[in-house]
């Protein structure tokens, strides 16, 4: 995440609910994905990136479900640079990616999520769902584990956001809001001169 910041696990915990929204919106769209209750249940006006979330939500309301399904498939399945696999753009199918996938899988299992063998651990909706569902308060392993997880998300979503901007996709606003949410959980270290 760069700079002289440290993840504030309490802030991340306070924002767990919005990660449920991100996960839901980044999974393959279904009728309930865009039900008004989805917005009301998960998104609050004080959410980081709220304006981007609103822009995304309003844009998606202009499409039919079939159009959204086509947009989703076209964007995330057919554009190599707009993949939801957060380590793919950087590592593709290298040994380093395999090692990162294994580390993420171990992290999930440490906090109670058992993954199916056919699932890849760097899938963005899965990562968001993990943050939403995981219980980490008081766990001494949480700081290092969630620092790695958010670093992978931050790194992967940078490339994803740039690709979505190029394709003029409404998902661009969702990803930018996700990045803002992650950044809002960083506690800047203040020096005595500040």
SSE pattern: EHHHHHHHHHHE
* Arithmetic mean of pLDDT: 92
How many helices? The count is: 10
Alpha carbon gap, first and last residue: 21 Å
Q: What's the assembly state of these chains? A: single chain
Rg on CA atoms, Å: 17 Å
The percent range for helix content is: 55-70%
Strand count, sense and barrel status of the largest sheet are: 2 strands, antiparallel
Structural class of the secondary elements? mainly alpha
Strands, count = 2
What percentage of amino acids are in beta strands? under 5%
What is the spatial order of strands in the main beta sheet? 1-2
- Point out poorly predicted stretches: none
Given the C-alpha coordinates, what overall shape results?
A: globular
List the helices and strands and how they pair.
Blueprint: E1 5-7, H1 9-14, H2 16-26, H3 36-42, H4 50-60, H5 65-78, H6 88-91, H7 95-110, H8 124-133, H9 142-166, H10 171-183, E2 186-188
Antiparallel strand pairs: 1-2
